[in-house]
């Protein structure tokens, strides 16, 4: 089978890591692969390590529409917002079918070109139940399939892990890792830290990330010694190994790739009951869920986990079993079944 993957993002965030993980798995499965990617993206260098993958550099969705690019492809798999237009044009020009993987739980745009691109797709894939719900509202007649992301694994340097632990020695280390956008709930984390500052001084919060909200968040956290802004991190494997707990109190979330990654690394998680997060976390079984924006509940959950080793062990054991359902081998099989159905 020959699949053309398209991701035109210039950065390398969760969606690009998920694209790479699927391509790597499909290479192991014997697929022929083409990847249409933005030349500015670090994804390019990652893909060059996969011999089975032909790379097409494409700076904009209006470029690189030669027939030869997809002449031998069974279908196009879209992974990112702008890429859907590239697939639409290739479909209209050369009749190549395409599917779309949607990663965000926002309502779909009403723009005519966007609606046309979604309508012409052979199938729409949502990472979570909430994304499927949003797709169904705009495209009720489309073929909708839920296929989640898979956890990305990161290398771990034991020396760096020990450095982090030494820096926070004697602390129960809580991390919140995400781009600093308003919907990621960093304000909830800071307020939870404020509630715990006097009663639980041994609980330390590290905010891992950067973004346009950082300045206002730093102002909000002024005077709190139990909150540290660590900036964007490239060694998340070390942080997962060094931390005691991951929190992810987003107001909205497509699925929550960092939750999958933390659970796969053996780290317990508290998330918000928002977007696709409940698709991952079974409340009080494989983690904990709080109401979005409820900093008091977040603080209480953190405090209780800190004091209850039995509960912590229970959550870790169940999260390990839960995460197996999101393994890339399982997700790749679901995509393969969809590809074959569309191919006929």
From TrEMBL:
Keywords: Transferase. Gene3D superfamilies: Glycogen Phosphorylase B. InterPro entries: Glyco_trans_1 (IPR001296), Glycosyltransferase_grp1 (IPR050194). CDD domains: GT4_PimA-like (cd03801). Residues 159-318 form the Glycosyl transferase family domain. One of its GO terms (molecular function) is glycosyltransferase activity. It holds the Pfam family Glycos_transf_1. This is Glycosyl transferase. It comes from Salinivibrio kushneri.
């Amino acid at each position: 089978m020959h699949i053309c993957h398209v991701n035109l993002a210039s950065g390398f965030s969760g969606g690009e890591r998920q694209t790479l993980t699927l391509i790597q798995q499909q290479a192991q499965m014997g697929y022929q692969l083409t990847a249409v990617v933005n030349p500015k993206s670090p994804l390019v260098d990652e893909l060059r390590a996969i011999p089975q993958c032909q790379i097409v550099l494409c700076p904009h969705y209006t470029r690189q529409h030669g027939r030869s690019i997809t002449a031998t492809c069974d279908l196009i798999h879209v992974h990112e917002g702008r890429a859907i237009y590239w697939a639409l044009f290739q479909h209209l020009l050369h009749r190549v079918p395409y599917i779309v993987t949607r990663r965000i739980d926002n309502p779909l745009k009403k723009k005519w070109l966007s609606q046309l691109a979604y309508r012409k797709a052979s199938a729409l894939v949502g990472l979570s139940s909430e994304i499927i719900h949003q797709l169904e509202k705009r495209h009720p007649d489309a073929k909708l399939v839920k296929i989640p992301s898979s956890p990305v694994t990161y290398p771990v340097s034991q020396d760096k892990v020990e450095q982090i632990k030494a820096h926070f020695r004697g602390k129960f280390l809580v991390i919140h890792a995400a781009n600093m956008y308003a919907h990621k709930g960093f304000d909830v984390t800071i307020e939870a830290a404020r509630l715990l500052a006097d009663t639980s001084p041994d609980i330390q919060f590290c905010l891992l990330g950067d973004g346009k909200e950082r300045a206002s968040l730093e102002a909000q956290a002024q005077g709190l010694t139990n909150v540290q802004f660590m900036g964007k991190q490239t060694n998340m494997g070390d942080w997962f190994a060094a931390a005691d707990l991951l929190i992810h109190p987003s107001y909205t979330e497509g699925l929550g790739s960092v939750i999958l990654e933390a659970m796969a690394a053996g780290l317990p998680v508290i998330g918000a009951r928002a977007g696709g997060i409940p698709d991952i976390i079974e409340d009080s079984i494989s983690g904990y869920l709080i109401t979005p924006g409820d900093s008091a509940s977040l603080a209480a959950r953190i405090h209780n986990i800190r004091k209850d080793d039995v509960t912590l062990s229970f959550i870790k054991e169940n999260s390990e079993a839960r995460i197996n359902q999101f393994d890339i081998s399982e997700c790749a099989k679901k995509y393969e079944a969809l590809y074959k159905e569309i191919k006929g």
